[in-house]
């Protein structure tokens, strides 16, 4: 048996993270676990563009809703990572990135042995429709094996 630990990257997204963390706990019990959250900056960027284009005329940058949304996104991401780490129940690495979620996940998966992510499409339509566009991109471009799990259903 080798002493070299493998690394599992777990994509933490707001709607599916519990299933991914549970899969890491159950399927990768001896792996080094990295929990990854990616803040999607598109909404903050759109709010900033709207503010800069029309709404912000004559007002200072302190009123820019894009900046406020970005700050709130950072806090929400950090809280989500902490909650996921607590659920995992063992030491892990927390990684909070911003940008295009699918591109950041693929980039982060470059140096890991396993990527754990959840289906995020229509749960009533197994197959390709059970993956949203971001997850489909990740599955198609991941440079490592992918464990794809169903999110918990209420």
In short:
The protein is α/β, with parallel strands linked by helices and 154 residues long. The chain is built from 5 helices and 5 strands, in the order βαβααβαβαβ. Helix 2 packs antiparallel against helix 3 (65-88) and helix 4 packs parallel to helix 5 (133-141).
Our count of helices gives: 5
Q: Please, what is the average pLDDT?
A: 84
Ends apart, CA distance between termini: 40 Å
Overall helicity:
40-55%
Q: What general form does the structure show?
A: globular
Structural class: alpha/beta
List the topology elements.
Layout: E1 7-12, H1 17-27, E2 32-39, H2 42-55, H3 65-88, E3 93-98, H4 101-108, E4 114-118, H5 133-141, E5 146-149
Parallel strand pairs: 1-2, 1-4, 2-3, 4-5
Helix pairs in contact: 1-3, 2-3, 4-5
Looking at this protein, list some descriptive labels:
globular; alpha/beta
If you had to describe this structure to a student in words, what would you say it looks like?
The protein is of the alpha/beta class. It is 43% helix and 19% strand. The protein has helices spanning 17-27, 42-55, 65-88, 101-108, 133-141, and strands at residues 7-12, 32-39, 93-98, 114-118, 146-149. A five-stranded parallel β-sheet has the order 3-2-1-4-5, with helices on both faces. The longest helix is centred in the middle third of the chain and has 24 residues, at 65-88. The relative contact order is 0.22.
């Amino acid at each position: 048996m080798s002493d070299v630990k493998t690394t599992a990257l777990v994509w933490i997204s707001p709607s599916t993270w519990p299933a991914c963390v549970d899969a890491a706990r159950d399927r990768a019990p001896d792996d080094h676990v990295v929990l990854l959250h990616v803040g999607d900056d598109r909404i903050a960027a759109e709010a900033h563009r709207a503010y800069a284009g029309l709404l912000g005329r004559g007002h200072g940058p302190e009123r820019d809703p894009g900046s406020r949304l970005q700050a709130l996104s950072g806090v929400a991401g950090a809280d989500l990572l902490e909650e996921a780490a607590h659920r995992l129940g063992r030491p892990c690495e927390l990684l909070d990135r911003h940008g295009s979620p699918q591109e950041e996940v693929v980039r982060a998966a470059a140096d890991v042995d396993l990527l754990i992510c959840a289906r995020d499409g229509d749960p009533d339509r197994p197959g390709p429709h059970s993956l949203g566009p971001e997850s489909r991109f990740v599955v198609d471009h991941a440079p490592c094996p992918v464990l794809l799990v169903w999110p918990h259903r209420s």
